[in-house]
Amino acid sequence: IVLTGSDDHLWKTWGFPDGNILQTGEGHTDWLSGCCFRPSGTQLVTSSGDTTVRLWDLSRRGCILTLRGHSRAVRGCSWHSCGDFVASASADGTSKIWDVNSERCRYTLRGHEDSVNSIEFLPFSSTVVTSSADKTLSLWDVR
């Protein structure tokens, strides 16, 4: 299965190698900048120009949680390997670590001087790496 997000505000899962559309998700009101599967494979997260991060349940075929807190477009998202946390990077110059169980922002990471364009958890760790339009990379310990 391949997962894609697009300027048409939709995410899609595709069968591979046939290329048939398996599922489509709608709910964002602007372009999608990122999407990835939860490590368990039963859910996914998307980020969007509409300033939100959304969690989707594949079996329910719908959005189960909308995370709000960024003031500008969200440029990327990532799951922690344990599946309990989502990270988001925004054009507002911040990144956020979201606890999906409590449905709240656990941390807001500040320090970049421009848009944060990508974010990834390092595998099996509490370290996050961000990249920014300010031409820097930052490593964050989010314990």
Kindly describe this structure.
It is built from no helices and 14 strands. It has strands at residues 2-5, 10-14, 21-26, 32-37, 43-48, 52-57, 62-68, 74-79, 85-90, 94-99, 104-110, 116-121, 127-132, 137-141. The protein starts with a strand and ends with a strand. The chain has a single domain (33-141), classed as YVTN repeat-like/Quinoprotein amine dehydrogenase (Methylamine Dehydrogenase, Chain H). A four-stranded antiparallel sheet has the order 4-5-6-7, with no helix packed on it. The protein has a four-stranded antiparallel sheet with strand order 8-9-10-11, with no helix packed on it. It is globular and about 40 Å long. 0% of the residues lie in helices and 57% in strands. The protein is an all-beta fold and 143 residues long. The mean pLDDT is 95.
Describe this structure in a few short sentences.
By secondary structure, this protein is mostly beta strands. The protein has one domain: Methylamine Dehydrogenase, Chain H. It is built from no helices and 14 strands.
